[in-house]
Design a protein that fits this description.
Blueprint (H helix, E strand, L loop, with lengths): L3 H13 L4 E8 L9 H16 L2 H12 L3 E8 L2 H4 L5 H18 L3 E3 L3 E2 L6 H15 L4 E9 L3 E3 H17 L11 E5 L20 E7 L2 H15 L5 H30 L3 E5 L13 H6 L10 H19 L17 H8 L5 H7 L7 E7 L4 H18 L3 E8 L7 E3 L6 E3 L9 H5 L3 E2 L9
Helix pairs in contact: 2-5, 3-9, 5-6, 6-7, 7-14, 8-9, 9-11
């Protein structure tokens, strides 16, 4: 139970510290919609999504109003279409994508995730057709997000899929060149993807999940930063890092409790099971809602300075510890995100050269995801992007954690130029990519074997 002081503290979080429920995501299983007849598939998909999601937005608003806690985004995650539509041609995959986009607009959600594939051990014809459809699919739709899993600790890394995704990212950027390669902001390549991610662009409904489920994604980097500033100012002495970790842990507990209340409230009203609370610190471009500012509060000149990886490790661990005590249903990614374009402080550090791609990669060893929302020169070779994916996948595979790559090679732009994506996606200066040729390495193909510790069972 929260004390009176903690209740008042939570109210203040809502009023002045950017506390919100970042997303309520409705997971919908589409495996029972599979059909060799595409028209039958379309009817089943439209019917099922409309049946379960038509009340999602109004229910989230009603529950949010009741508790005075805004639910910023309402989203849908479906089963991986690469598996649901295993027999579809490339053209049918594009049509399927458009159907999902229509459904999202009809029920009023912000995004729909799941137009993706799990290819860590091999690629089926249907999954290849989906991947090859992505340039057209993501350029002709507005609310579709796609995630492709190319590796895992159990399976190793499918380098053929990695190579294919390097080329696909370049093609998606070209297909959306008029919007600074915006399609790539809705495409993420994973290693060790969880089955219950409520955050985009990685959201999809895993094969072990219920038929329908409500997951909630809680944010609050501004809340954590304000709590740290208060603790440091009120202490009257220099706090130790152990004491600082305790402040983060207790703040994460309160934030997670808020998310759990909203998620369970929405699930109860819709008569749908509650799934998980993902307590990731997901920033926005708004001033005061930044993960990067936490690094400055903790004594660094900016994120990217020496010590950044240590701070991020402590932050990530403390958030998880606080959240796991607050809820028995913590899942998804749950930790700290460092998406460059979506965080004003991180973007400023990258723009001025204080945060480099090399340092970002090092920090992904201890954060929730990986290289996220990074704008790079439009002429970056596909093989270089594939090698970046391979590097991140190797970090995830060896360390048994989730890693991912969401980079945007912005057509026609070079280092120092600015790409504008809008909304929560923000904007970013194009940053330098390390020099060197990776093409011969990528050309080997095949599969990097799983590490020895994958044999645990």
């Amino acid at each position: 139970m929260l004390t009176e002081r903690e209740v008042l503290s939570t109210i203040n979080m809502l009023r002045s510290e950017h506390l919100d429920v970042r997303t309520v995501t409705l997971g919908i299983n589409l495996f029972d919609c599979a059909s060799h007849d595409f028209d039958v598939f379309e009817v089943k998909v439209r019917s099922k999504i409309n049946r379960y999601a038509k009340r999602l937005v109004e229910t989230c608003d009603a529950v949010g109003d009741r508790y005075g806690i805004p639910v910023v985004n309402k989203r849908i995650a479906v089963s991986p279409i690469g598996t649901v539509g295993a027999g579809f041609t490339r053209e049918q995959m594009v049509r399927a994508c458009c159907i999902l986009d229509d459904c999202a607009k009809e029920v009023g959600v912000d995004f729909i995730g799941g137009f993706g594939a799990l290819v860590e051990k091999g690629i089926t014809p249907g999954e290849r057709n989906l991947i090859e459809s992505l340039p057209e699919s993501l350029s002709c739709t507005d609310r579709i997000c796609s995630s492709i899993n190319v590796g895992s600790t159990k399976s190793g890394i499918n380098m053929d899929a990695v190579s294919l995704m390097g080329r696909t990212i370049v093609d998606v950027a070209q297909a959306t060149a008029d919007r600074d390669g915006l399609g790539c902001a809705k495409l993420v390549v994973f290693c060790n993807i969880p089955q219950d991610v409520p955050f985009m662009a990685g959201a999809y409904l895993g094969v072990g999940e219920p038929d329908v489920v409500i997951d909630v994604g809680v944010s609050g980097p501004g809340v954590v930063n304000k709590a740290l500033q208060r603790a440091i100012n009120e202490a009257g002495r220099k706090l130790t890092l152990g004491e600082i970790a305790e402040v983060i842990k207790h703040t994460a507990y309160k934030v997670t409790r808020v998310g759990e209340i909203i998620g369970r409230g929405v699930a109860s009203r819709m008569n749908i099971p509650f799934g998980v609370a993902d307590l990731s610190l997901a920033p926005t471009p708004a001033v005061g809602d930044s993960v990067g500012e936490i690094f400055q509060t903790l004594g660094l000149s900016s994120i990217g300075a020496p010590g950044s990886t240590a701070v991020l490790a402590m932050l990530n661990d403390a958030v998880k510890k606080g959240g796991i005590f607050a809820s028995g249903n913590v899942g998804g990614l749950s930790g700290a995100f460092i998406p460059v374009s979506e965080d004003s402080s991180i973007e400023a550090a990258a723009r001025t050269g204080r945060l480099t791609l090399e340092k970002l990669e090092a920090m992904t060893c201890v954060c929730s995801v990986g290289l996220d929302m990074i704008a790079i020169p439009g002429d970056t070779p596909a093989e270089t992007i594939a090698a970046m994916i391979a590097d991140e996948s190797a970090i995830g595979m060896i360390n048994g954690k989730t890693t991912a790559v969401r980079v945007i090679p912005v057509p026609g732009k070079k280092v120092g130029d600015v790409a504008v994506f809008g909304g929560l996606l923000g904007e970013a200066s194009i940053i330098r990519v390390p020099v060197g040729d990776s093409s011969r390495f990528i050309d080997f193909g095949g599969r990097i074997p799983a590490p020895i510790h994958s044999l645990r069972n």
